[in-house]
Write a structure and sequence with these properties.
The complex is a heterodimer of chains A (335) and B (462). With 335 residues, chain A is of the alpha/beta class. Helices cover 39% and strands 21% of the residues of chain A. In chain A, the strands form two sheets. Chain A has a seven-stranded mixed beta sheet with strand order 4-3-2-1-5-6-7, with helices on both faces. Chain A has a six-stranded mixed beta sheet with strand order 9-11-10-8-12-13. In chain A, a hairpin with a 3-residue loop joins strand 2 and strand 3. Chain B is α/β, with parallel strands linked by helices and 462 residues long. In chain B, a hairpin with a 5-residue loop joins strand 14 and strand 15. The two termini of chain B are 27 Å apart. The chains are: A alpha/beta (335), B alpha/beta (462). The complex binds NADP nicotinamide-adenine-dinucleotide phosphate (NAP).
Chain lengths: 335, 462
């Protein structure tokens, strides 16, 4: 399988590491023999239609430099989308930063890839949150595969679980904790820490971004909810259709009061008719009352009732492994 | 607001339209335009002549196109600088059109793609003129092609299908921003782009479809279709001189009416509005005070009145397949339909008696002999169909109303009213969605039948 990857940061590098370490196994078990024809980062790109050397890419990124500086194949400067037309390949993997304002550069990139009949994997929630109905329509129209397991739940196969394991049943509603950072903060606040202290801790431990507002204002959860609602429930919604509330207004006292009644407060994303993200007071013993940076999602289906899946949420390695899952699936579809 | 070709037929009409738009400019408006008058038909003609290599025609045509559009500029734009600027843009487009047509005439080859490109000039020209006329009246406008506005389709040139989700997203992104700046977008109807940026045309429903797609993308409150009629009529005024305009009908009723040949919107164009429940108002450009016809959701329709409209479809013929051994012989009907489909003949109405010994089919009259011939070749002498007969002196009497499915006895009342006048009924069938009832009668009884149905259901009383 011939691949070009966009974005070679935490996730991109973890993916390359995994492809290197699992090379034999992937080939023997799944017939997956990926060849990286190109890598693109923010300052340049490298292309070799014979396949780039993964070690070389990792080495240059570890030095904090751009792949555009790679010997022989590197080129500095912006990657023009027209270049895609002149390379024959099978799969584009987008791991560029999330942009929640206009989805770029990923949105244009993915659209162009579809029009060139290329399969696409993305770990980037931005384009999906803003324009998922458009992307699903264009993928279908061009008869290509589009996978995005890494966008929700990281290594925990939430999307696949709901789509495949509950096949034949009808999922009516989805409720879940989709953001590890806010769950970590709420868990710590329950122990008596102030919001700002808990946030700082989350940043130190590496869950939260330097700018954590997407997490604590509920945007990250809402983006994941959009993806779930489109993919699992077939609802054609975007971020604008979600009512979003974050956790900035929650005080330690609120959590103490809840605790006295055997309850706790969680940032719950739910879609049941209306799509919304809000801090809800739920019983301590409910399925969704998971602590720390865990994620948990309940699927409420017509026959199977409520199924809850709990997982560790996102991280570079976990997300990279979900990309490999997607690659194996696309490999299967390519016959 | 969408303006059809007849509303933009010349400079003074374009002036009138620009004044009309200005009078509504306190609202947020998006304008969709068709080509001027009959320009699209002329372009089609020219592209075919060009394909045959007729360079003389191309030359003459190019002069003609340039003249009518420049004249329209002159008669709708008063400000000198604006007139000059707009005329220059028209000239540039006409030059381009001339080059394209010349190219076709030299190669003697017209691909569907280049044909769509040629046809797109009609709307591109008219939108520029109306844009100029609006600016002349002090309005802020931006002229856009359908593709620039965000309408994206598959690459099925000639009759492209919109990719609706992609269209909704892109139109919203691009047009909402303009509206919020107080700019009136003037968008070419009928033409769009595929995902590679090539110009496509929307085919049936054309500019109306552009308007409803844009309305659905923006979740507009209403779509106004400006045309040269007052709205949809209860009956043909040639038959019932006092027939009135229908004030309000449902999307489903409108769909049926148009299927039955009423002048209105193509069902394909109704669909985006129907799905998003956006009301459509049909209004007369030259009598804007008149209320027009509102096409809206069925829930807001008065169901006490079972019948809304009666129409006569004249250009039809009926074929009957007769044969005793057809009873239980499965697939006879299917074979007949396949035979007709292979000839590209569209079936308008079918009925089969319960005993299965007869099948009647109504098709367009001009394909009657072709159809009969094909059916004879494929079905006679095979032991199933004994005889094939046809009538070319029949009409279909179509009765439309959402109430038909709620109120029992409509069919009985129709048949009674006809029986009283000794009008024979040859075939009867209810529309699949039960919003209509069609009856085949003899030509000579047509007008009388319309009158009787009109009286029976008090259609004058709205
Ligand atoms: N990290 C996680 O745990 C995780 C989990 C789930 C999903 N995700 C999503 O996965 C994506 C990647 O995350 P990450 O943590 O790997 O981010 P990251 O470390 O910031 O890496 C982003 C990469 O994208 C490159 N890039 C930036 N702008 C670009 C452009 N215009 N064209 C091409 N490449 C560009 C960057 O180039 P430089 O190397 O030159 O800076 C960098 O290599 C994000 O959308 C994120 O939300 C991440």
């Amino acid at each position: 399988m011939r691949i070009i990857i966009f974005g070679c940061g935490i996730v991109g590098r973890s993916l390359l590491e995994l492809l290197k370490v699992r090379k034999k196994e992937l080939n023997i078990s799944y017939g997956l023999a990926p060849k990286i024809l190109g890598v693109v980062d923010s300052k340049g790109f490298a292309i070799n239609t014979e396949g780039l050397n993964i070690d070389e890419i990792l080495r240059i990124k570890d030095l904090g430099r751009s792949v555009g500086e790679m010997e022989n194949y590197g080129k500095k400067g912006a990657f023009e989308l027209e270049i895609l037309e002149n390379i024959e390949f099978d799969l584009l993997i987008d791991m560029t930063p999330t942009n929640i304002v206009n989805g770029e550069p990923a949105l244009s990139l993915i659209k162009r890839a579809f029009s060139l009949k290329l399969n696409v994997i993305t770990t980037n929630k931005g384009p999906l949150a803003l324009a998922m109905p458009l992307l699903l329509e264009l993928a279908k129209h061009n008869n290509v595969s589009f996978r995005f397991s890494g966008t929700v739940g990281g290594g925990t196969p939430l999307l696949d679980f709901a789509k495949k394991c509950l096949m034949g049943d009808k999922i009516l509603a989805i409720r879940g904790i989709l953001n590890g950072t806010t769950n970590y903060i709420l868990t710590e606040m329950e122990k008596g820490k102030e919001f700002s202290e808990a946030l700082r801790e989350a940043q130190v431990k590496g869950f939260a971004e330097a700018d954590p507002s997407l997490d604590i204002d509920g945007i990250d959860s809402a983006s994941k909810l959009v993806i779930l609602a489109n993919w699992i429930l077939g609802k054609k919604i975007t971020l604008k259709d979600v009512k979003v509330q974050g956790i900035r207004d929650i005080r330690v006292k609120d959590l103490e009061d809840a605790k006295k009644k055997g309850k706790t407060i969680k940032l719950i994303a739910s879609v049941n008719g209306e799509a919304k993200v809000e801090a809800e007071t739920i019983p301590k013993d409910s399925n969704l009352a998971v602590s720390g940076s865990l994620n948990a999602v309940s699927f409420i289906s017509q026959y199977a009732g409520e199924e809850t899946i709990i997982g560790r949420g996102a991280g570079g390695k976990e997300t990279a492994s979900s990309v490999i899952r997607d690659m194996i699936e696309i490999r299967g579809l390519m016959g | 607001m969408k303006f059809g070709g007849s509303s933009l037929a010349d400079g003074s009409k374009i002036s009138h339209v620009a004044d009309l738009i200005k009078s509504y400019s306190k609202n947020s408006i998006v304008v969709v335009v068709s080509a001027m008058g009959e320009v699209t038909d002329r372009l089609l003609e020219a592209s075919e002549k060009a394909e045959r290599g007729d360079q003389e025609y191309v030359k003459k045509f190019s002069v003609y196109i340039r003249e009518i559009h420049l004249a329209a500029c002159k008669n709708s734009i008063r400000n000198k600088d604006l007139l000059e600027e707009t005329s220059k843009r028209i000239e540039a487009l006409c030059d381009e059109l001339y080059r394209v047509l010349t190219g076709v005439s030299l190669l003697k080859e017209l691909t569907p793609k280049s044909k769509d490109y040629i046809l797109s000039f009609g709307e591109r020209l008219s939108s520029i003129i109306l844009g100029g006329a609006l600016r002349d009246r002090g309005l802020k406008v931006k002229v856009l092609t359908g593709g620039e506005a965000g309408i994206v389709t598959d690459s099925n040139f000639g009759e492209a299908n919109p990719l609706t989700e992609a269209t909704f997203y892109q139109v919203k992104e691009r047009i909402e921003a303009l509206i919020s700046e107080g700019i009136i977008p003037v968008i070419t109807g009928y033409i769009a782009e595929d995902q590679y940026g090539k110009i496509t045309t929307l085919g049936r429903g054309g500019s109306d479809l552009t308007a409803t797609l844009i309305a659905a993308s923006l979740k507009s409150n209403e779509v106004w279709i400006w045309t040269d009629v007052e709205g949809l009529m209860v009956a043909d005024p040639k038959i019932i001189p006092e027939a009135k305009v229908l004030p309000k009908i449902s999307y489903e009723e409108a769909t049926e009416m148009v299927m039955f040949g009423a002048k209105g919107m193509h069902p394909r164009a109704l669909e985006p509005a129907m799905v998003h429940k956006i009301p459509i108002l049909i209004k007369n450009t030259f009598n804007p005070e008149a209320k027009g016809t509102l096409i809206c959701d069925e829930t807001s329709i008065n169901k006490d009145k079972p019948v809304k409209m009666v129409a006569l479809i004249k250009d039809v013929g009926m074929i009957s397949l007769i044969g005793g051994s057809m009873v239980g012989a499965r697939g006879t009907a299917a074979q007949a339909f396949t035979t007709l489909a292979k000839q590209g003949i569209n079936i308008m109405m079918i009925s089969q008696s319960v005993s299965e010994s007869d099948i009647s089919i109504v098709i367009k009259r001009d394909s009657l002999s072709k159809a009969v011939n094909a059916l004879e070749l494929s079905m006679l002498g095979k032991g199933i169909v004994r005889d094939i007969s046809y009538e070319n002196d029949v009409y279909v009497l179509a009765i439309v109303g959402a109430g038909i499915k709620y109120i029992p006895g409509v069919a009985a009342r129709v048949l009674n009213a006809l029986a009283k006048e000794k009008i024979n009924v040859y075939m009867i069938s209810a529309g699949s969605s039960s919003n209509s009832l069609s009856v085949v009668i003899k030509e000579k009884d047509g007008y009388l039948a319309v009158k009787k149905v009109y009286e029976e259901f008090n259609l004058g009383d709205i």
